[in-house]
Fold this protein.
Amino acid sequence: MNGETLVALNEGKTLDFKRDLSSPKGLLKTLVAFANTAGGKLIIGVEDKTRQVIGVEFPLDDEERLCNLIADSISPRLVPNIEMTTVENRTLLIVEVFPSNSRPHFLQSEGPENGVYVRLGSTNRQADRELIGELRRSAEGVSFDEMPLPELSRDDLDLKAARRAFAGKRELDEQELITLKLLRSEQGRLAPTKGAMILFGRERIFHFPDAWVQCGRFIGSDKTDIFDHIELDEPLPQAVESIMLFLKKHAMRGADFSEIQRKDVWSIPLSVLREVVINALVHTDYSQRGAPIRIAFFDDRIEVENPGILLPGMTIEDMKSGVSKIRNPVIARVFRELKLIEQWGSGVRNILHQSREMGLPEPLVQEIGMRLRFTVFLARPIVLEKQQVGSRSGNQAGLVDGLVDGLVESQRQILLLINENPHISKRELAERIGISTTAVDKNIKTLKNRGVLRRVGPDKGGYWEVLEGSHE
């Protein structure tokens, strides 16, 4: 790519402009960030804000000064490629940095703990301890989820949950657990890997406090008002279905629950969202601390956000073109064995292809802070007005709201559905509302205890009755 073409581009993850060498620290941060992330080109002699070509007056002197600055200021040693090019009859310096296998690089003046930077969009961000560890592991070819937890044993795994997930697919004996790298030999004994604990650990949140999922349905297009939310702390394969149930729950046409009996009437692209959710669960950087995976449902879009920037050497453009690097091979292998992943590296391509097939805008992929966000836009808004929250479904909603104070949303929907169809089954309730049958049982028990619901006749052949006059 020639100099004129480069100057016409916008700054981004792999491109930056500097006017001159008068402020070397910012320039050095950029070079460190390029080396630690996906490489890049720094063009010296261009005003970064106006994109005006200024040129360098003494290119040979500036080249020598730059080489000395890099040698004296950056560790481990960084050797970029420096070339000269002419644009608009002015000489520019092009400094090309490649992704480094000696990462993490850092500014010597700030030290190895504070001087490590990574590239996010067109900015340089200081790396924290967890990200520095991730950079070091990636350079050494070590995956976080393959590392053992020698202080634990196989008894710390919920093998019943694992075997339920693999039922009909594999028999999880000890050898299979080793083959899947859920167990590995450490100091003469078998210990679970971090991936095993994240997937099926009994005390997974104790060991990985942010390895859970937060789902929220917001009113409007921002996070000012939340209508409904759940927090999922369960084995990751199971979490896929729970997340999709939550999305289905809020995907009925509009907010009119009179349509809830119509099956398969969804206003969201379920297949696209399933791929996005799986991508987030598999590629999250579980070494990061501070926030879980988040799914935010707005009137016009759904955002799926997971901790962890792209692996070194990867860009968003690479993802879109089908290039794939697996951050968590243990987790990915389990998802592949469970048929949650069809083909290695196909996830993002499937997301983009299915969105085009459905006539949807292309999903937006962004690195924001130290997180990766997928935004899936809806074909049409699902508007949830504030006044609708307390007065849905006309008289039926009013009847239900009058029964008892403090109904949670799932209990309210159960009563609405039963009021419309007293013979509805628990399984159908779970399917229509988008929650598990276990959750249906718990909510029905609560409604019975509060005297607003009862079962008439046997489980098979009987029916439900909403008790209008028995509220407290």
